[in-house]
Amino acid sequence: MRVTLVEDNAIFCFLFEKFLEDYPSKKIEIQLFSDGKKAWDHFVSIKNEPNLFPDILFLDINMPIMNGWELLENLLVNDFDFIRENPIYIVSSSKSSLDTSKCEEYSFITDYITKPIQREGIYKILDEYLNQKLNP
C-alpha cells in the first residue's frame, strides 16, 4: 500500500511517517513531499505509470510554493484519475469555515481532518481502506 503525505511541517511529517512504519496490518510505502509543487512534479513524472500513484493521499492545504488547493486543481484539470478513485484526506490545522466549505467543492475528497491527528485516527483510515479493498 502506498500512502502519500504532502505537508510542510517537518514534525508532523516525522510523526506521520513513524505511525505508518509501525502500522501492524500491512507494510506501507510512504511518500513525503514538503509542498504541492514537489508532489505535482512527482505526479507528472509518473503520469503514465498509474500503479505508482498513491492508494491514499493526505494533503495539507496551507503550504508555500503550491498549496493543497492548487495541487488538487492541477490534478483535476490534468485528468489524474487517481484523485477520484482513491481516498484523499485534507489534513490541516485550520478550523476556518472557508477551508472546510471549500473542501465541499471537491466531491472526491474523502474527509477533512483537523490536526493534531493521532496514531489511532490514521490506523482507522488505513484499516477502513484495507477492509474496502478486501470486501468491495
UniProtKB/TrEMBL annotation:
Q: Which InterPro entries match?
A: CheY-like_superfamily, Sig_transdc_resp-reg_receiver, TCS_response_regulator
Annotated positions of the 4-aspartylphosphate modification? 60
The residues covered by the Response regulatory domain are 2-130
Keyword list, A-Z = Phosphoprotein
**By its UniProt entry, which PANTHER family does this protein fall under?**
RESPONSE REGULATOR RCP1, RESPONSE REGULATOR RCP1-RELATED
Name of protein: Response regulator
Native organism: Sphingobacterium bovistauri
Q: What is the lineage of its organism?
A: Bacteria, Pseudomonadati, Bacteroidota, Sphingobacteriia, Sphingobacteriales
